[in-house]
Specification:
It is built from five helices and no strands. It has 120 residues and is an all-alpha fold.
Length: 120
């Protein structure tokens, strides 16, 4: 949507600039959310040592420890799971807010200007 030539060349219409700015802000918010969930800086296996583990990796590590144990998980595992679950719920809440507010506003603006959107 941001690079469509039909809409990119028409800078005289302020609403198109508003739509573009809203779309860029939305993408930045999604990038920030993604960075909280997964480590996007890892390019090589050694990068896992250089950059902090994000929520997905931390949860996978916890699941791995529990899966190989031959006994019931200790209380600390449940505490760590509850902590990670709370952090994930915060990110899901952010995503829901983005969908309900930012994305809804962006869709409304594009419909008003007759800009076709992707369905799926």
């Amino acid at each position: 949507m941001l690079e469509r030539p039909d809409f990119h060349d028409n800078q005289a219409d302020g609403s198109l600039v508003t739509i573009r700015n809203n779309a860029e802000t939305f993408v930045q918010c999604l990038d920030s959310l993604e960075n909280e969930l997964v480590q996007i800086k890892n390019e090589t296996p050694s990068d896992r040592l250089r950059h902090p583990m994000m929520l997905r990796d931390r949860l996978e590590g916890l699941i791995s420890v529990v899966a190989i144990a031959e006994a019931a998980p200790p209380a600390q595992v449940y505490e760590v799971f509850d902590h990670l679950n709370q952090l994930l719920e915060e990110q899901f809440s952010r995503m829901t807010d983005l969908e309900e507010k930012e994305l809804a506003e962006l869709n409304r603006l594009t419909r008003e200007k007759g800009i076709p959107s992707f369905q799926g």
